[in-house]
Amino acid sequence: MNYLYRNLTPKQLIALGLVIPVLCLFLIGWFQWQSVSDMLTTRSINRESRNVQLALATFRYSLSDAESCQYRVLLSDNDAENLALYRKYIDAANTQLNFIRSSTADNPLQQKFVASIDQPLHDKIQAMDRVLALEKAGDHAGALKLASQGESGKNMIAIEKAVEDLQSSEVQELVQGQNHYQHDFKFNALLSLVSLGLSLFFIMGIILLLRRLAHLQSVVTLTALTEMIQYEGGNITIEEYLKRRHQALALHGQAQIEAERILGLLEKRRPKAVTLPS
CA 124 to CA 159: how far, in whole Å? Predict the structure, then answer.
């Protein structure tokens, strides 16, 4: 700090005290903006991951409920209500699958798992539709026989396998996203702490600078009123100061031009001889 005081003018010190804090605050603000942006992105990804997991659970429940409605058609007399529920659950399963497909469009691995659901789902729905078609046509025995062959169950096993793979992938992404979110949160907190520390540091620096300027002002005032300056811990006259500077330059072999300049200043400070009239 003393090096700056001795080598910079007050204007340069003030400019330095203003520019450096502004630059530091700008950089810290930019890093905080980036950190908050990453946190918001990660939170959005985590929210989408949870929505996909919910859609997967709803998809499985819808298929299971549709299959239950198929069996209720075979085993009860209330065919119209059960058929309506069957179509409702099939539509719900297709809607959830389309949502999952669109939500995982940016992940090739998850898209592969979703694609592996399409064919067994199509085959399962066709198998259940054939059973219901036979029942509607009055072939109750044929419908029961077709349902007992287990074709729908085999397709459901393939669907369950793909859904489990997709859920595992989503859980893994969710864990990674949460870890990334926590990392960003800690980094943002640390950055805020650093920002606070730097702000306090520069506030203290500005206070010290103002005290230094007040001291310089008092020195200038003292010099102007008494023609004395502070030098080597004491107050001396300007003439004595110039003599000491000249002696120091001569002793250490400094530039001749500087020595001559000081000698010129000494000559100016000596009182001129006054010629009295004869």
Answer: 9
Query: Is residue 153 domain-resident?
Result: yes
Kindly calculate the radius of gyration of the chain based on its CA atoms and give it in whole angstroms: 44
Cα dihedral: 191, 196, 198, 201 (round 10): -160
Instruction: Say yes or no: 256 and 188 in one domain.
Output: no
Confirm if 62 and 96 have CB atoms less than 8 A apart.
yes
Distance from CA of residue 216 to its chain's centroid? Answer: 45
Per-residue pLDDT reduced to its tens digit, 105-124 = 888 888 888 888 888 888 88
- Domain limits for position 81: 32-198
Report the distance separating Cα 39 and Cα 222, nearest Å: 59
- How many other CB atoms sit within 10 Å of the CB of residue 128? 24
Q: How do residues 141-173 score in pLDDT, each as one tens digit? A: 888 888 777 777 788 888 888 888 888 887 887
Q: Are residues 238 and 150 in the same domain?
A: no
